[in-house]
From TrEMBL:
Enzymatic reactions: 2 nitric oxide + NADH + 2 O2 = 2 nitrate + NAD(+) + H(+); 2 nitric oxide + NADPH + 2 O2 = 2 nitrate + NADP(+) + H(+)
Cofactors, names only: FAD; heme b
Domain Globin per the UniProt entry, residue ranges: 1-138
Residues that coordinate or bind heme b: H85
Residues at which NADP(+) binds: G276, V277, G278, L279, T280, P281
Keywords linked to the UniProt accession: Detoxification, Dioxygenase, FAD, Flavoprotein, Heme, Iron, Metal-binding, NAD, NADP, Oxidoreductase, Oxygen transport, Transport
Gene: hmp
CDD domains according to UniProt: flavohem_like_fad_nad_binding, Yhb1-globin-like
PROSITE patterns: FAD_FR, GLOBIN
InterPro entries in UniProt: Cbr1-like_FAD-bd_dom, FAD-bd_FR_type, Flavoprot_Pyr_Nucl_cyt_Rdtase, FNR_nucleotide-bd, Globin, Globin-like_sf, Globin/Proto, Hmp
Record's function text: Is involved in NO detoxification in an aerobic process, termed nitric oxide dioxygenase (NOD) reaction that utilizes O(2) and NAD(P)H to convert NO to nitrate, which protects the bacterium from various noxious nitrogen compounds. Therefore, plays a central role in the inducible response to nitrosative stress.
Family to which the UniProt record says this protein belongs: Belongs to the globin family. Two-domain flavohemoproteins subfamily. In the C-terminal section; belongs to the flavoprotein pyridine nucleotide cytochrome reductase family.
Listed name of the protein: Flavohemoprotein
Entry text on domains: Consists of two distinct domains; an N-terminal heme-containing oxygen-binding domain and a C-terminal reductase domain with binding sites for FAD and NAD(P)H.
Amino acid sequence: MLTQKTIDIIKSTVPVLEVHGEKITTRFYQLLFQNNPELLNVFNHANQKQGRQQTALANAVYAAAAHIDHLEEIIEDVKLIAHKHRSLGIKPEQYPIVGKNLLAAIKDVLGDAATDEVLNAWKDAYQVIANAFISFEKGLYQQAQEVEGGWSDFRKFVVDKKVKESEVITSFYLKPQDGGALASFLPGQYISVKVQITGVENSHIRQYSLSDAPSKDYYRISVKQESGNDIKPDGMVSTYLHQQIKEGDILEISAPAGVFTLDEHNDRPVVLLSGGVGLTPLTSMVNTLVEKYPKRPVTYIHAAINGNFHAFAQHMTELASKNKQLKNYFVYERPTDNDRRFQSFDKEGFITIDWLQSILKSNQMDFYFCGPTPFMKAMYNGLKQWGVEKEHIHFEFFGPAGELEEQAEAVQVR
């Protein structure tokens, strides 16, 4: 239990975190990997280079500090991060390592302003926050292991089938090497894939959404091969999976995790909005709805560059033709001549709020969306402008949900 004095000190540092948060977390990662290089096996190096990891951590630290006396108010962020930690295999003994380096980073960045009183307050506060995560994650580990077909940490899977879905997306069908049972999952969840790439010192872990309905004898992930530039490095793991992994190869997989899941406990109409490879969790949701809830109306809207980059287009078209509950709309930014010739899309350009209103008629639906960050901001902002209530807006986003909500206010739907 924190004293009121400690709480007051922590809250007094919130303005400082707003100004220096990313400097502190950048320094933290430098110290962490310098002092504990074994943790390079856990963190996404591409996100480090782009600053995404630092930004996400800074936002999480800021939120924890601002709500230090009422952590229950950020329980959704705690759940989101805890699921990712469980999927990555984060252990309780790693939390003191993180705390030590975080305090050192605060001291380095703030200098004399980081007095012993401030550092001691943060030490106490960090322990409270760490204990909350450790406790929550313990339950997630137990749940993952105790369900039928479940396991903890990583399990070996065979690549049973590899299918090219578009110019940049390939699906991998995965079955347990031990031939044992396969844990079910909630539509929208993901798994972590751990690989050791020849010539690369550290192992790498990436999280990929499961792209088919549960209750199959396989897991399916559909991976986009990321191309790089000066700002964003090549997707090392996605390139490895596309170019090196073959049918019959072995991959190490964590049990399913994630909080972006389909609500299967109501009968409200569902609208699924995806951009690019963001279609993967929503494809799982579509397949589940058609298989299990044939009376629940579903509108699926996907945005892609053009037909060459559109995965599962034929599958969705056939699904809609066989199931009256499902309506599909495809939006292509730059349609090809073939797209135009075969009229394989419904709108050219981008998804706009005016267009959504014209095809949906009502906003009394459950909205789920996933895609690139600009797409996410536009969808969130547009739905809020339309008056969709917050509890009916669901999305998958890197980092705390509040970051998207804050940034979206300045973004207009194109």
